[in-house]
Amino acid sequence: MSESYQAGELPVDTNHEVLAHLDRCADCRGELDARVALRQTLREAFEQAPTLAPDPRFVASVRARLEDRGPSGLRFGVSTSWLAMAAGVVLVVALGWQFARVDRHPVVSAALSALTAHAAGDHRYCALEHALDEPVITLEEAARRYNPIYASLRDVVAQSGAVRDGRVEILGAHWCVFRGRQFGHVVAKHSGRVVSILVTPTGETSAPGSQAASCESSDGLQVACFDAPGHGVFVVSDLAEGELLQFARSLAPALQAYLART
């Protein structure tokens, strides 16, 4: 229903009911605002991505054909402006389809793909088996020594709706190392399963509002991930893929905004 509401497609009575509910429910307002912001940033990123722009040769070909066809060459009184409009409609539909495809099937960056096994390993040997080779330290200490982003990591995760409404419980948070890779690590419990939220520096730039995606499963675990400014974020558990991905997507806006500010 939220998609129909944002698109202005709901009947008047239903729309009024939604507005009345939003006035009473702060959590729903926050979730709707996050969805609107995510859709907008994705749309802006798509529109600004050079690789998704129309092929210049195609544009030049259409323009040349339209210019070459004068009024005498047109049947049934069809004007050049109508042909231009038709070409524009085709282009808009094609771009809209491409945008929808990108929105539904976000692509995992090469930097994140390369770190999936590290994230899964850290979840197993830190959160589950407590068998890391190096000792963990507090996030506050890690912020002083290595990177200030670690300081408020637990607090940012705690802002998600799933934590606030009790569906997810935070068990602890620390900084750890697995096979040379540093992670800010928040450990939580979701539907009775242990979940790791792992943040690690990558040095990579990312498009605003990059959407969480399912990475390849590793070591029998499901991994969802998303890019954030200068960092990669991984959510790892043995939850069902869809449930884990939904949780990762609920975390993404707040973590991306926090990492962009820090």
Explain what this protein looks like in three dimensions.
It contains 10 helices and 6 strands; from the N terminus they run αααααααααββββββα. By secondary structure, it is of the alpha+beta class. The chain has 3 domains: about 1-50; about 50-105; about 110-260, 2-Layer Sandwich (Phosphorylase Kinase, domain 1). The longest helix has 25 residues, at about 80-105. The protein is globular, with a radius of gyration of 23 Å. The relative contact order is 0.12. The model is unreliable at about 95-105 (pLDDT under 50).
How do you describe this structure in short?
The protein has helices spanning 2-6, 12-24, 26-48, 56-68, 80-104, 110-128, 139-145, 153-158, 161-164, 241-261, and strands at 168-178, 181-190, 193-201, 213-214, 222-228, 231-237.
Fold blueprint:
Elements: H1 2-6, H2 12-24, H3 26-48, H4 56-68, H5 80-104, H6 110-128, H7 139-145, H8 153-158, H9 161-164, E1 168-178, E2 181-190, E3 193-201, E4 213-214, E5 222-228, E6 231-237, H10 241-261
Antiparallel strand pairs: 1-2, 2-3, 3-6, 4-5, 5-6
CATH architecture of the largest domain: 2-Layer Sandwich
> Helix fraction?
40-55%
What is the CATH level 1 assignment of the largest domain?
Answer: Alpha Beta
Domain count:
3
Classified in CATH, the superfamily of the largest domain is: MucB/RseB, C-terminal domain
Largest sheet, strands/sense/barrel: 6 strands, antiparallel
Report mean pLDDT, rounded to a whole number.
Answer: 80
How large is the share of residues in beta strands? 15-25%
Order of helices and strands: HHHHHHHHHEEEEEEH
Q: Oligomeric status of the shown chains?
A: single chain
CATH topology of the largest domain: Phosphorylase Kinase, domain 1
Provide the low-confidence segments as ranges. 97-104
As laid out across the biggest beta sheet, the strand order is 1-2-3-6-5-4
Using the CA coordinates, give the radius of gyration.
Answer: 23 Å
